[in-house]
Amino acid sequence: MAKALKPSRNLFEHELQDFLAFVWRPRLGPRLPNRSAGEGWHQDWFAALPWKRLLQWALALWVLNLLALGPLALSAASAAGAQHRLDMHNIPWLHALLWAPLVEELVFRYGLRQPAKAFWLVPLALPAMLMGPKWPSMLLVAAGILLCWWLHGRRRASWWPSWRWHAAYRRGFPVFMHLSCLAFGAIHLHNFSMDAAPLWLMALMVAPQWLTGLVLAWLRVRRGIGAAIALHAIFNGGPLLLVFIVLTLTGGQVPSP
């Protein structure tokens, strides 16, 4: 059972150090301060969230994307002849703040701590993610979440993998974690409308999402899926709020670049 970091290491810079160490050498522990050890579904989903700390992480990502990765991604998109699909006059609030954070975390990061459940949760959540927030996809996601909660505590059932399987997963966890972040970045290529482009340009176009995926993976492992969903929603909301403010101040006119 993973232990929590000492409360004395509850500063943002200490979490940043732990994140960098996690990226260099991913592992399943320890937990962050003020997060109870264990795998209880309530702790995983509904543990008290450190909103101030989540805002700090969101701010750090916004600043880094604004000053470095964002311009890099825009330059790569321009070189590839790609156009972003976002309609400035039809901001997808529901999709960005509720649907995408929930369903993308279920697809790409829930299984990092619950690998056995990922075998059936991902086949439910992935089609829902691709369909968007429609009634059939919502029912798929709801069924997957309810099944996750219902199966909690039934690890000794015959369908649950053996401890040898878990030991093998722990050894391969760094590979699974980084693959999940690469896949998370790659899925956001759908945000662009483009013809064929070199692979290295496409990688640069989704560099902001790749970095955000690393932070979300670390947070999912260290604190829980609820915290990852919350940070995902906050991160998505910042740029959309900025666009909304700009459109409001300019009377709905998109400023020229």
Number of extended strands: 2
Enumerate how many helices there are, as a single number. 11
Q: Report strand order across the widest sheet.
A: 1-2
Mean model confidence by pLDDT? 86
> Segments where pLDDT lies below 50 for 5+ residues?
none
- The proportion of strand residues reads under 5%
Main sheet: strands, sense, barrel: 2 strands, antiparallel
Question: Structural class, please?
Answer: mainly alpha
Q: In angstroms, what is the radius of gyration?
A: 19 Å
Helix percentage: 55-70%
Give the overall form. globular
Helices and strands, in order, run as HHHEHHHHHEHHH
Cα(first) to Cα(last) distance is 52 Å
Provide a descriptive summary of the structure in words.
- This protein is mostly helical and 257 residues long.
- Among the domains are: 51-77 and 172-252, no CATH class; 118-160.
- Helix content is 68%, strand content 2%.
- It has a two-stranded antiparallel sheet with strand order 1-2.
